[in-house]
Amino acid sequence: TYDEALKDYTKAIELNPKNEKASYTRGNLYSKNPDTYDEALKDYTKAIDLNPDLACAYFDKLELLLCWGKYSEAQDALKEASRFSKEDNYPIIYPFLESILSTVNPNLGNPSDLEAIIKQNKEIKIEWGFEELDSWLKRTEDLSEEQKTEIKKLIDMVKEHIEETS
Q1: Using a CB cutoff of 8 Å and minimum separation of 24, what contacts does 143-149 make?
Q2: Less packed terminus of the chain by CB within 10 Å, N or C?
Q3: Residue 1: is it exposed, middle or buried by C-beta count within 10 angstroms (0-12/13-18/19+)?
Q4: For residue range 63-83, what is the model confidence (pLDDT) as tens digits?
């Protein structure tokens, strides 16, 4: 269960405070609940401090900040994550999150063309959970319906790519 997993990762961190993967994974658990976003952010930050090359922690931190409505901090996290934008599955995930952030904050300028990037990288398999983003779109009140519709299109585009490459 969630509570048991949380307890196990907390124990692992107590036994080895330098275990960045335990901090990262506990952050993922905390990120499932808006009431524990603070704890998730602390764990993602700790994981990054322990291992500055843990790319997944940067992207999950960015997603968390988006879902939390901390768009300015999300913009900073996007800059931090940019150094991983060409690695693994991030050539798609980076512009995906960049596009969402640009939809939320049009002052950021034009994002990358996500559709073209997906076509260029059609062989890249992605593992990404959309639960937090889907939940955020349902509960957020600080976005217009137009912004929500645009973000939903971006999510659907990446979900379709995942289905095609599975």
Answers
A1: 143/104, 147/103, 147/104
A2: N
A3: exposed
A4: 999 999 999 999 999 999 999
113 DSSP 8-state letter:
-
Q: Residue 88 contacts by C-beta under 8 Å, 6 or more apart in sequence?
A: 55
pTM over 0.85: yes
Tell me the DSSP string of 43-66.
HHHHHHHH-TT-HHHHHHHHHHHH
pLDDT in tens, 112-153: 889 999 999 989 888 888 989 999 999 999 899 999 999 999
State both tokens at 34. Answer: 């808006």
Compute the C-alpha angle 27/73/154, nearest 5°: 80
* Residue 89 pLDDT: 73
